[in-house]
Amino acid sequence: MPKRKEISLDLRQKIVDLHFQGEGYTAISKRFMVSRTAVRCIIAKYKETKSVQNKHGRGRKRKISKTLQRKIIRDVNKNPWTSAKMIVSELATSGLDVSRKTVVRALHRGGLRGHRPRKTPLLLQRHIKARLNFARDNLKHKSEFWKSVLWSDETKLEQFGHMDAAFVWRRKGEAFNPKNTVPTVKHAGGSIMLWGCFAASGTGNLVRVHGTMKKEDYVDILKNNIRTSASSLGLGRRWVFQQDNDPKHTSKLVKTFLKDTKINVLEWPSQSPDLNPIENLWRELKVRVHARRPSNLHDLEQFAKEEWAKIPQETCANLVRNYQNRLLSVLKQKGYAIDY
C-alpha cells in the first residue's frame, strides 16, 4: 500500500479544539475525512504531551550512534585522507553494515565536508623554523614600515591558462557552442615570464623576461626598475626591497649589486609565497588578462601591462594594511602554510 500523507499540524490542532468543544470522535472523523483511529491518537497524544507536534525520536533510529559518530570524526580529524569507503570497510569488520552515504551524512553532521586538498610548497623543518622566526621578528613593525616595502616577484602568464571562469550557464545540447567552450592547445599555446613590483601606494613597473632569466638578467631588471618604481610610488629614502630566495636572487652577483647600491633587503624565509602579497596581485592580473582573451603573445604582454596599471591603489593598500594578520596566521599555523 502507498504511504499515507501525514496529517498537518494545523489539522491536528483543529481536531483537538473540536474535541474540547465537546464534539465526538466520529463526528470529527467525518468532518475532516480522517479515520476515527487517527482522531483518537491525536487527542490522546495531546493529552499526554500538551502538543500536536511529533514526538522527538520517532522514526527509524540511525545506524551510526552518536558515540560511534564521535569516534569516526576523531579518526578522520587525525587522518583527513581517510575515505568514506575505508570507513565503511572498517565498520563492516566490526559487524556494522552501513552504506557510504550513511558515513558521509555522519561526517556532515560533524561539520566535515570533502574538498580537494590545497597545493602548498613542501616545508621542511628548517623552512618552518625560518617562517616562525620571520613572523616573530617582524610583528614588532607597525603599518608604516610595511608601507615602505617594495614587494617583487616573477610569474608565468599563459596564453590559454586555467584562470577562466570554472562554470558557464548553458542549455542542454549546447556544450560545444563556441561561447560555452574554452580553447586549448598543446603546451598551453605559449607563455611569457613577467617580473613586477608593487607597494601600498600602487603597482610599480612590470617587465617581460625574454627567455630563461639568468642572474645577469635579474641584475639588469633591478637596475632599470626598482629605484624608478620606488620613486614613482613615493616610498621616500628609507624603503625596503623584498624578494624571495630564488637562486638567482641570492647569487653573489645580485648581493653585490644590492650592497653597492645601498638597497635595504628584507630577510625572507624560503618556500613562503603565501607571505608575499604580490601573489594576490598576480591572481588578479591573470583573471583580468584572460578575460580579454589574448590571441597571441604580443597581446598577452600588452594586456598584462595595461591591466597591471589599472589595478586600484586601494587594492594594494589593503594587501599591505593587513600584513600583520599574515604573520599572526603563520604563528597560529605553527609555521605551516596559511590561507592567503
The CATH topology of the largest domain comes to Nucleotidyltransferase, domain 5
Number of domains: 3
* Gyration radius from CA atoms, angstroms: 32 Å
Strand content is 5-15%
For the record, give the distance between the C-alpha atoms at the N and C termini, rounded to a whole number: 57 Å
The mean pLDDT is: 89
Shape: elongated
Summarize the helix and strand pattern as letters.
Answer: HHHHHHHHEEEHEHEHHHH
Helix content: 40-55%
Organism: Astyanax mexicanus (Blind cave fish)
InterPro entries: Homeodomain-like_sf (IPR009057), HTH_SB (IPR057667), RNaseH_sf (IPR036397), Tc1-like_DDE_dom (IPR038717), Transpos_IS630-like (IPR047655), Transposase_5 (IPR052338), Transposase_Tc1-like (IPR002492), WH-like_DNA-bd_sf (IPR036388)
Domain Tc1-like transposase DDE: 149-300
Domain Sleeping Beauty transposase HTH: 1-53
Detail the topology: elements first, then pairings:
Elements: H1 9-20, H2 25-32, H3 36-49, H4 66-78, H5 84-93, H6 100-109, H7 125-138, H8 143-147, E1 149-158, E2 191-199, E3 202-209, H9 215-232, E4 240-241, H10 252-260, E5 264-265, H11 278-291, H12 297-310, H13 313-321, H14 323-332
Parallel strand pairs: 1-4, 4-5
Antiparallel strand pairs: 1-2, 2-3
Helix pairs in contact: 1-3, 2-3, 5-6, 7-14, 11-12
Domain Sleeping Beauty transposase HTH: 1-53
Organism: Astyanax mexicanus (Blind cave fish)
Domain Tc1-like transposase DDE: 149-300
